[in-house]
C-alpha cells in the first residue's frame, strides 16, 4: 500500500532531496545538485520566490520506505503572464511502479483543482534558472549540474497519465578547435567582427572576478528583458537576483564572462560559461563538506576539458542581428586558449533559432532532449 504524505519539516525536505541521490546512486550519468541549495529552495524564509509562489512537496511511502517524490508550484506571476491558472510540477522522481506514480500526480492534480487551475505542466521550477524538462533522449550522456536526469521509464508514466508534449529543449555537445578560430569557425569569427564594428559595441573591461560585480545587476536586468518572451519565464524580482548572484558568481571569472556595451555604456548582451563541475558534484554527492569544496575547486581551476555554456542574452532590440556570435566568439576564444576541448550547450528551446543556428559552425552533435509535459485537469 502506498501512503502519500505532504511534508513541511526541514528534516522531511532533506529526505525529499536526497531521495534522487539514492535512486540514481549507481547511475554514472546522474549528477546531484548541491544539497544545501536544494533544501533552501523550499524554505520560505530563504527563497524569495515565495513572495509570489506557493509550493507543496509530497513523499510516497511504502512500508516506511520513501519510494517517490514530487513538488507542485503555483507561480502567480506566470499565471498573470499567460492569463490563466496553471500549476507546475517539479522534482518528480519515483520507482517504476504505477501505484506510486499515480499517487504522486493525483496529489499534485488535486491541489491544482483546489486552486482553480486549468492544467498542470512541467517539470518546471520557481524560475527559468531552476531545473526544468524531463529527459527524453540522451540517457547515456553525463548530465550537467543544473539539469534533471531521469530513467527512460518516466516517459511511459507521463504518457500513461495523459500528459502530452508542451515544448522541448535540445542540448548539444561541441568539439572545440585546437586553435582559434580554426577553419570551421572562421566564418563565425568574421561575422562577429563585422557586427561588432557595425553596431559600435565593445566588451566590458573585465580583469578579475571582482571587476564583474558592478555589472551583475545590469546583467540580470537584461536577462529579464531578453528572456521574458520564452516559455515559462517570468521576470526575476530584485531579491531573486540577489539569490542567483550568490549561487552563480563563484563559478565564473573574467575569462568565462563576456559583457557587451553600447556607445552609452549600457549592457546590451552578455554570456556566461563555466568549467564543468559535473564530475566534481558526483564525487561530492552534492555536499560541500567535508571534501566537496575541494572537488569543486579542482574542477574550476584545472584538470577539466569541458565547458558548460550557462547563459547568453541579447537585448530585444538587437536580437537576430548576429550579436550572439560576438559573445560566443569571445568566450570560445578564451576557452580554446585555456585548453578546453568540448562545450556543453545546456537546454535550449527547440524554437530558439537565433541560438541554435550558431551550432552549425561547430563540430556539434545534438545528444540530449528534454520535454515539458502538460495535462488539462
CATH architecture of the largest domain: 3-Layer(aba) Sandwich
Question: What integer is the average pLDDT?
Answer: 93
Oligomer: single chain
CATH class of the largest domain: Alpha Beta
The share of residues in extended strands comes to 25-35%
**Total discrete domains:** 2
Amount of helix: 25-40%
Task: Give the low-confidence spans.
Answer: none
Terminal residue distance: 25 Å
Outline, from the CA principal axes?
globular
Q: What is the assigned CATH homologous superfamily of the largest domain? A: Gcn5-related N-acetyltransferase (GNAT)
Number of helices: 13
Description:
- With 377 residues, the protein is α+β, with helices and mostly antiparallel strands.
- It folds into 2 domains: 2-169, Aminopeptidase (3-Layer(aba) Sandwich), CATH 3.40.630.30; 173-369, 3-Layer(aba) Sandwich (Aminopeptidase), CATH 3.40.630.30.
- Helix content is 35%, strand content 27%.
- The chain contains 13 helices and 14 strands.
- Strands 1, 2, 3, 4, 5, 6, 7, 8, 9, 10, 11, 12, 13 and 14 form a 14-stranded mixed β-sheet that branches.
- Helix 6 (182-198) crosses helix 12 and helix 10 runs antiparallel to helix 11 (292-301).
- The longest helix has 17 residues, at 98-114.
Amino acid at each position: 500500500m502506498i501512503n502519500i504524505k505532504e511534508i513541511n519539516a526541514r528534516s522531511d525536505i532533506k529526505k525529499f532531496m536526497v531521495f534522487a541521490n539514492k535512486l540514481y546512486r549507481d547511475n554514472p550519468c546522474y549528477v546531484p545538485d548541491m544539497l544545501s541549495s536544494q533544501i533552501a529552495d523550499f524554505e520560505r524564509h530563504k527563497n524569495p520566490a515565495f513572495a509570489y509562489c506557493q509550493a507543496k512537496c509530497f513523499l510516497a511511502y511504502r512500508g516506511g520506505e520513501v519510494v517517490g517524490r514530487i513538488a507542485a508550484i503555483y507561480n502567480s506571476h506566470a499565471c498573470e503572464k499567460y492569463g490563466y491558472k496553471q500549476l507546475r510540477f517539479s522534482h518528480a522522481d519515483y520507482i517504476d511502479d504505477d501505484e506510486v506514480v499515480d499517487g504522486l500526480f493525483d496529489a499534485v492534480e488535486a491541489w491544482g483543482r483546489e486552486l482553480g487551475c486549468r492544467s498542470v505542466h512541467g517539470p518546471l521550477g520557481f524560475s527559468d534558472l531552476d531545473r526544468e524538462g524531463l529527459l527524453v533522449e540522451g540517457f547515456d550522456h553525463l548530465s550537467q549540474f543544473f539539469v534533471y536526469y531521469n530513467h527512460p521509464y518516466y516517459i511511459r508514466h507521463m504518457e500513461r497519465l495523459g500528459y502530452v508534449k508542451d515544448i522541448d529543449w535540445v542540448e548539444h555537445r561541441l568539439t572545440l578547435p585546437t586553435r582559434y578560430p580554426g577553419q570551421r569557425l572562421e566564418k563565425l569569427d568574421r561575422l562577429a567582427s563585422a557586427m561588432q564594428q557595425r553596431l559600435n559595441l565593445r566588451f566590458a573591461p573585465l580583469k578579475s572576478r571582482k571587476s564583474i560585480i558592478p555589472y551583475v545587476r545590469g546583467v540580470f536586468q537584461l536577462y529579464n528583458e531578453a528572456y521574458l518572451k520564452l516559455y515559462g519565464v517570468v521576470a526575476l524580482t530584485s531579491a531573486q537576483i540577489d539569490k542567483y548572484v550568490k549561487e552563480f558568481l563563484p563559478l565564473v571569472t573574467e575569462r568565462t564572462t563576456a559583457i557587451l556595451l553600447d556607445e552609452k555604456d549600457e549592457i546590451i548582451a552578455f554570456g556566461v560559461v563555466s568549467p564543468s563541475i559535473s564530475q566534481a558534484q558526483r564525487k561530492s554527492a552534492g555536499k560541500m563538506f567535508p571534501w566537496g569544496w575541494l572537488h569543486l575547486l579542482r574542477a574550476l581551476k584545472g584538470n577539466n576539458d569541458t565547458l558548460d555554456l550557462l547563459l547568453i542574452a541579447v537585448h530585444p532590440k538587437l536580437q537576430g542581428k548576429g550579436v550572439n556570435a560576438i559573445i560566443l566568439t569571445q568566450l570560445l576564444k578564451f576557452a580554446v586558449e585555456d585548453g578546453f576541448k568540448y562545450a556543453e550547450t545546456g537546454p535550449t528551446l527547440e524554437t530558439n533559432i537565433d541560438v541554435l543556428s550558431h551550432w552549425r559552425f561547430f563540430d556539434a552533435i545534438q545528444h540530449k532532449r528534454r520535454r515539458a509535459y502538460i495535462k488539462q485537469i
